[in-house]
Amino acid sequence: MNKRLQEIAEYTGLSESTVSRVLNDRKGVATATRDAVLTAVDVLGYERPTQLRAQEARLVGVIMPQFGNPIFPAFAEAIGGHLTQRGYTPLFGVTETGGPSEAEYVQTMLGRQVAGMIFISCLHAVGHYDHGHYQLLLDRKLPVVAVDGLAPDLELSCVSTDDVQAVELAVRHLVDLGHRKIGLAISDQDHVPGARKVAAFNDCVAGIKGVEGVVDQSIYTLEGGSSAAAHLIGSGVTGIVCASDVMALGAVKAARRMGLRVPEDISVIGYDDSTMMPLVDPPMTTVRQPVEALSKAAVGLLISQIAGRGNRAGEIFFEPELVVRSSTGPALS
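The structure assignment produced for this chain is given below.
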């Protein structure tokens, strides 16, 4: 700290006490003096204090894995809107295959002097992975909030949909319709929300007399849903709970390729309630993520950190909602 003050003071020709007042955002410093100190900080390669990054750039980095799944543009729109309302400009980054990695985006965002970062369904939700870029942000005391799952080794503020309740809503809906052999189409169980869904599914079916559960692991894509559904239908299930709406669309496609009708022969439930789900054929029964509530909370937590109030690390869970449409129906007797 003393070396930094000394170098900035020498560069600007100001006293160390004046430099300290600027860096601590004290009142009573002339604008020209303040600008000179901050310019020196940048030129000398030092990092601006968090509160000064927020005041200067008012930029927030928002990172997500893709735009292909409609749930991510929905989060981007909601989070971007709440940031704008609070006077911040979102800088979006998408880690599509072949594009920049999360770690590369972190370096880019730090270079843009962002006031904080929000990560949506990124590597923070994957266990047994290198989370060094998150630790870098924590070490630099940059405000960070995660959305949708938190690996056990990370000390971040996070907001998530309650995966346990989501699965229970879906399974009990199918049971109420008379289904007694139910499948779950899921992706990598290293993914924290996915692992929670599997555990909740197994617990739920085990607790209902006469109900059998089958889990098939695939990927969160149309093709992944189609593949999982084919295996599940082959095992004799009459209802399928999917871990995303995109997978559910693939499940419907697979059922039709096998000559089955949805919902007359096989019932399908999605997860997310993406924008187009009421418009597909048949309109998709799905578990709705509370995107607006999650987004508002994520931005609120981030703004609280930027203001220096801090947050308790850990997850805050939000309730999902079952939206019943036409892709589920009574089991064949």
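Interim note for the steering committee: The longest strand covers residues 59-64. The two ends are 75 Å apart (CA to CA).
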